[in-house]
Fold this protein.
Amino acid sequence: MSEDSKPAKTVLELRIRGRVQGVGYRRSLQIMARSLDLAGWVRNRADGSVEALVAGDAAAVAEICEWARIGQPLTRVDAVATALPEGEEARGWSPYPFAVWATA
């Protein structure tokens, strides 16, 4: 497949609020992202939220966003905010395979 015919990569930042720390949310999101062949990362934030950067096929990014709104059984997701990233992330850079980063 030539560079011109490759599907465009979608890159999105997520901020998830609710009971999402200490319940396996990051690891579950990582497993889901890897199953969808997404690049990116997830980490806890000091304010109790979880932040993620996801990059890949638009349909897979949409699917991880839907998953993020529900999470896994021990979580309670109150809100998921999405934004277009800036800087390196806006150009499509993100680690592959999908990683769990330290709290910021």
About this structure: The chain has one domain: 9-84.
